[in-house]
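Fold it.
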Amino acid sequence: MGVPPTRSVELTLQAERKIAQVPGWEPFFRKAIAAIAVDPEPDGVSQFVAPIETGYSGCILADRYPWRIFYQLAAPNRLIIVAIQIHPARQIYL
């Protein structure tokens, strides 16, 4: 059945818009977000901290090809999905 998340999850307006913008992908996004909520640092460390010029400073990056999900651990029990973007290696534009 899986482990229930121990963190509350919030989505920014940008993340909500991206989910709504891409028909058919919502189940994938919800599953990926649930997995992040259960284990936001699967390797025990932040996978990536975005450079300040990206506007995602302090965010952790989760590669869920063909998407990237930027998120913050606002508190030990609070997760904020900041943005969802197409992976740079993917050659489609949404």
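The longest strand covers residues 67-75.
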